[in-house]
Task: structure prediction
Amino acid sequence: MLEGKARKSLVFDTYELALSSRADLLQALKSKTTPPFGEALEEYLESLGSRGVTAGTIHNSGRMLRLFFPLDQPIGAIDAETAERMYLDETRRTKANGEPIAADTHHLLLRRAKQFYKWAISRRYVDKSPFAEIRPTGRARRGKPQLRIDEARKLVAVAVERARTLDVGATAALMQIFLGLRPTESVIRVVRDLDDDGHVLWIPFGKTSNARRRLQVPEPLREILLKQAHGKPSDAPLLGPPGEGLHTRHALRHRLHQLCADAGVPMVCPHSLRGLNATLALEAGATAHHVAAALGHSSFATTARHYADASTVANANLRKVADVLVTRPERLDVLQLAQLIRQTLSPEELAVLHQSIAPDLPQIFPPQPKPTARN
Result:
């Protein structure tokens, strides 16, 4: 062994013991030759930027991983046992208010730790990820608690009153409810994004490639946005009094809590308003494709999983089948209907449909006489 200028030989009683010690020594050597977490994280975050990951995602990933990893230790110093203990400690951590962190939070942390080590392997800093075999614990929540319709009306009434005073958070909340915008999308709009005399709002970029879209502004919101834009240059922030800079999504979160309290409705988060938009749109008869596109999703699966109310999605699916049955009774394509039903309904809904029509199948499809054989 060489350590500094000192050199010494190690002798073991058995060959097996020598091999075991050799593995330990190689691990120790690797831990001293790999870069520390602090240095490797900066390089990793820079690589995310070069791949087109948004600045907000890079910032959040860096903040989360810096709190999780020991920044002064080499990235090769963590083995699988240590990694599992680190993750379990994180699942038991409590927030500043004393509540345990949500399963969604430590699930996201585990995914980001695995992604970091996948990058480290590609850079040949390590041979394998100590987090590779760790499975997330706890059940992640799907979607956010949403306001009921009457509660949403109360919130909108209070928000409209505040928004007419050029309140940024209240206007951003209305943009989420009426347009389904992400929190950041609502607060970073500039005046030129409001087009066609306030009838159109452009979202030129966002979290994903599907975030780029053009939205029709409903009349109640149009009046407020035109008042926000009045007298400002085209590159000025759309929301807020003249002269103010762009706000962050935290302004919306802070104001939304005040709006909920003033309206006397349950406290919800900004993303809940986005889900409320999806739910109300489906209830009003909008197609799944159009709802997903309005929210900037590549498919309705994301909308249904994280935003729209589950019962509303089920009702919309059943409504699609009903529309086919009602609107085309004289020329019903049975194969097309069967394909639509299979694609639209869940296994549970298919079972309910089968049970409901099974007793009437002989009347609907009476047995046909068998053709007689010909000589």
Residues 285-295, 297-331 have pLDDT under 50 and may be disordered. The first strand starts at residue 2 and ends at 3.
